[in-house]
Design brief:
It is globular, with a radius of gyration of 24 Å. Strands 1, 2, 3, 4, 5, 6 and 17 form a seven-stranded mixed beta sheet that branches. With about 475 residues, it is of the alpha/beta class. The protein is about 30% helix and about 25% strand. It has three domains: about 1-145 and about 275-335, 3-Layer(bba) Sandwich (FAD/NAD(P)-binding domain); about 160-270, FAD/NAD(P)-binding domain (3-Layer(bba) Sandwich), CATH 3.50.50.60; about 350-460, FAD/NAD-linked reductase, C-terminal dimerisation domain (Enolase-like, domain 1, 2-Layer Sandwich), CATH 3.30.390. Its cofactor is FAD. Pfam families: Pyr_redox_2, Pyr_redox_dim. This is Dihydrolipoyl dehydrogenase. Keywords: Disulfide bond, FAD, Flavoprotein, NAD, Nucleotide-binding, Oxidoreductase, Redox-active center. Its EC number is 1.8.1.4.
Length: about 475
């Protein structure tokens, strides 16, 4: 029987990062992956979708270049060439991960892993052979999550699809209906809307992007509608019938009122489910909650001390950067170093058009905690750099404690929001005050000036907009 210090089950952004860090810490490590290293994120999630989003944004912007005095002639898109380009990026990244694992001394094994004891894993390989491997210090569960399928909309890979298929379309549908107004649905729905698809979004809850600052969300909603898209809230997709012409007649219930929407493709984007089944947790008594998550303490340990849980499996937020950070921390713990999950916030980035990015509390969340707040806000429409980019929709919002002026949250909707939010996350991590941000000199002309002005606005001292 092969023996390792640590076994990592799953080679996604949590698992491979954990394995690499374990290798750096001189721990003999095995990473087991049943499909391709990189997991959902690299293969059909974060990276492929962002490649398509970048292409869609460029394509749309090319149509407005005449305003800048740039004549580009006919602008066309080639879905096949786009997919080939995207797949090239994925191939380079997954190959890079394999190289990093090897160069840091971590072994990689292809197969399906199952826990058979607190320190042993059974791996079934593609040829059907089975191998049992022991871990002397710990087993890390980094199995990620999978797309949730609705019984009345079972995937067929062609017209009823999930995110995995949506990032690989080699033909843009004329009409697309998205079930679910969350991150995945809006990101991918807006990609194909930019390429000409008629978009319909059906959301069961009263708001899109539940939990996100709704002022930010409204900016994205307006962009969808300005492009001709339709949004139905408090609505449920009940089922569909295939028409003689190949289209789909989707039955919708909108607050008790039935309606039928004809479309060519349905993207089901109602969320992700943790991959906790079939990995042997019941064999060793690992606790699994009612939603399928495997809870872990501040050191990543489950109720079975030798077994750790990270990433999507350990619970929300289901974000790649959260998984990676947990992977690093748990590697330190297994190696005997002092480490724990200790952060002020986990920032989020939503790659709609325009982008939304968040860190910390919304004003509503702070008020629910009994904290009186002051909100500072600066619109990109008042910013020279945004005007020069012809991207003036949106704003930066800074939420502060009314008494102390400490920064409680930052919410951005607009150009490069995903890049700008790192300053917000740093402000929260360092327990910054509005004055700290306002007094920090930001270079001009940049988008980051909006951050400085929003903080000043929270103090009643903004220069380039009227203070309340």
């Amino acid at each position: 029987m092969k023996t390792y210090d640590a076994i990592v089950i799953g080679g996604g952004p949590g698992g491979y990062v954990c394995a690499i860090r374990l290798g750096q810490l001189k721990q003999k490590t095995l990473c087991i992956e049943k499909e391709e290293v990189g997991g959902v994120c690299l293969n059909w999630g974060c990276i492929p979708s962002k490649a398509l989003i970048a292409a869609a944004h460029t394509y749309e912007k090319m149509h407005s270049m005449g305003t800048m005095g740039i004549k580009v002639g006919s602008v066309e898109h080639d879905p096949n060439a786009m997919q080939d380009w995207k797949e090239g990026i994925v191939k380079r990244l997954t190959g890079g991960v394999r190289g990093l694992l090897k160069s840091n001394g971590a072994d990689l094994m292809a197969g399906t892993a199952k826990i058979v004891s607190p320190n042993r894993v059974e791996v079934t390989k593609a040829d059907g052979s089975v191998e049992t491997i022991e871990a002397t210090k710990g087993i890390v569960l980094a199995t990620g999550s999978s797309t949730i399928e609705i019984p009345s909309f079972k995937f067929d890979g062609k017209q009823i699809i999930g995110a995995k298929e949506a990032v690989s379309l080699r033909e843009v549908p004329k009409r697309m209906l998205v079930i679910g107004g969350g991150v995945i649905g809006l990101e991918l729905g807006m990609v194909y809307q930019a390429f000409g698809a008629e978009l319909v979004v059906v959301e069961a809850l009263p708001t899109l992007l539940t939990g996100v600052d709704q002022d930010c969300v409204k900016v994205v909603e307006r962009r969808i509608q300005k492009r001709g898209g339709k949004i139905y809230k408090n609505a449920k997709a009940m089922g569909y019938e295939k028409q003689a012409d190949g289209s789909l007649a989707v039955k919708i219930d909108i607050e008790g009122k039935p309606e039928t929407i004809v479309t060519d493709m349905v993207l089901v984007a109602v969320g992700m489910r943790p991959n906790s089944r079939g990995i042997g947790l019941e064999n060793v008594g690992v606790n699994v909650d009612k939603r399928g998550f495997v809870p872990a303490d501040e050191f990543g340990r489950t109720n079975v001390p030798s077994i750790y849980s990270i990433g999507d499996l350990s619970g929300p937020p289901m974000l790649a950067h959260k998984a990676s950070k947990e992977g690093e921390i748990i590697a330190e713990v297994i190696a005997g170093h002092k480490a724990a999950k200790d952060w002020a916030c986990i920032p989020g980035a939503i790659f709609t058009d325009p982008e939304i990015a968040t860190a910390g509390l919304t004003a509503e969340e702070a008020q629910a905690k009994g904290i009186e707040v002051t909100v500072g806000k600066f619109p990109f429409a008042a910013l020279g750099k945004a005007m020069a980019m012809m991207e003036t929709d949106g704003f930066v919002k800074v939420v502060t404690d009314k008494k102390t002026k400490q920064v409680l949250g930052v919410h951005i909707v607009g150009p490069e929001a995903s890049t700008m939010i790192s300053e917000g996350a740093l402000a929260l991590e360092m327990a910054a005050f509005a004055e700290d941000l306002a007094l920090t000199i930001h270079p001009h002309p940049t988008l980051g000036e909006a951050f400085m002005e929003a903080a000043a606005h929270a103090m009643g001292a903004a220069v380039h907009i009227v203070n309340r």
